[in-house]
Amino acid sequence: MTELSPTPSQTVGPFFGYALPYAAGPRLVPGWRSGAITVRGRILDGAGDAVPEALVEIRQADGSGEIPRRPGGLVRDGHGFSGYGRCATDAAGGYWFSTLRPAAVGADAPYIAVLVFARGLLKPVFTRLYFPEDTAAHGTDPLLAQVPGERRDTLIAEREGDGVYRFDVRLQGERETVFLAV
Predict the structure, then answer these.
(1) Is residue 75 part of a domain?
(2) Which of 12, 107, 148, 163 has its CA at a distance of 20 to 30 angstroms from the CA of residue 5?
């Protein structure tokens, strides 16, 4: 009898483009709303190449530090704020969100929770996006305190202009984004 050895696990898909993205997904608030910001970036692999067909989700508090807990994350009427968004990446690995700048919750510096689903990943990866203006709060943030100093900048977005932030996620390799265990 031949002894069989286990085979490595394989990913199936990606199938993200079929039903998961939705038209209003990247618009947590309309761009015309007072206080609206744009968060944009790219998902990159270990070689620095774009990861098309990935799916990026964000969850966050609002501008007063309240975490929305009401139903209706898919319904965007232009006035409410669900704190949840989803955007598929384009051929260049790009994504974007129109949202509000969150306020701090508890001892944490203001942040946006980011999940990335992509080819080659059996499970999504989790990270946080912090804002460059909050340097003082970064010093007391419990999670950032656990990240080695030389890696913290992978969690801090770059300000590109008035109300525009760039946050590239590098899945591995040089300057790999810090990912969190859940």
Answers:
(1) yes
(2) 12
Here the tokens at position 133 are 């203006």
Our count of domains for the chain comes to 1
* 2 belongs to a structural domain: no
Q: What is the pLDDT of residues 95-110, one digit of tens each?
A: 999 999 999 999 999 9
- CA of 79: how far to CAs of 29, 37, 102, 162, in Å? 7, 15, 16, 22
Question: How many angstroms separate the most distant Cα atoms in the chain?
Answer: 71
Q: What is the pLDDT of residues 5-42, one digit of tens each?
A: 766 655 555 555 566 777 788 999 888 888 999 999 99
| Residue range of the domain that includes 68 | 16-170
Cβ neighbour number for residue 144 with a 10 Å cutoff = 20
Integer Rg of the chain from CA: 18
Report how far residue 86's alpha carbon sits from residue 4's, in angstroms, rounded to the nearest whole number: 42
Coil, strand or helix at 56: strand
116: CATH: 2.60.130.10
